[in-house]
């Protein structure tokens, strides 16, 4: 019917071109995908040049006079409000043609598509490692600079990301949201739960190449290997004695 009525409800967020069918919009977006590497972290819009992204970001910095009636957040334009509302409605018009995963923003689909293509346009100047989006490169860069902008209010420890800080805070709060489905045990991190699950199946997939002993975690195997290699990376600052484990060094320090 839209062929006769002229209705085109599917609009491109990059060039405002409209289409009668979602599939036509997806095909059109792929033409943009090859050239748009700079994605707005606020609304997901993508740009082919960094200068264009910088200019666009100023829109978000202006006075926000369009409030969301659902959560109260104010947006800088009616268009931004329409995009924001999709978060609440769950509307996801941008579909990955490879795996079918849906996204609210075209820019998020663009970044996701790099999982399939293997494209990593954001390259670290320090080590040459590539990343599919600017945010991951920014986090990685902190491994070189030592920057830890997320500070724990309990102990002052710095964390690289907000999610890392959230996990760390559970040490202080005692929160353990990840529950074992086999026994009553609970854990503060999902990765801890995954390691624990292996104890029920006795899945020791980290094998020592010297004695064939198996371990649940790669980190435990790493410590075990020092028995064979003789490596002792932990030094006593008082007498210079070295140890293969931090726990052994801690016990030793009490003798001083």
Automatic annotation (TrEMBL):
Keywords: DNA-binding, Metal-binding, Nucleus, Repeat, Transcription, Transcription regulation, Zinc, Zinc-finger
InterPro entries: Znf_C2H2_sf, Znf_C2H2_type
Gene3D superfamilies, A to Z: Classic Zinc Finger
Domain of life: Eukaryota
Pfam families: zf-C2H2, zf-C2H2_6
Record-annotated C2H2-type domain positions: 10-37, 38-65, 66-93, 94-121, 122-149, 150-177, 178-205, 206-233, 234-256
Compartment(s) where it occurs, according to its Swiss-Prot or TrEMBL record: Nucleus
Function description: May be involved in transcriptional regulation.
Protein family membership: Belongs to the krueppel C2H2-type zinc-finger protein family.
Descriptive protein name: C2H2-type domain-containing protein
Source species taxonomy: Eukaryota, Metazoa, Ecdysozoa, Arthropoda, Hexapoda
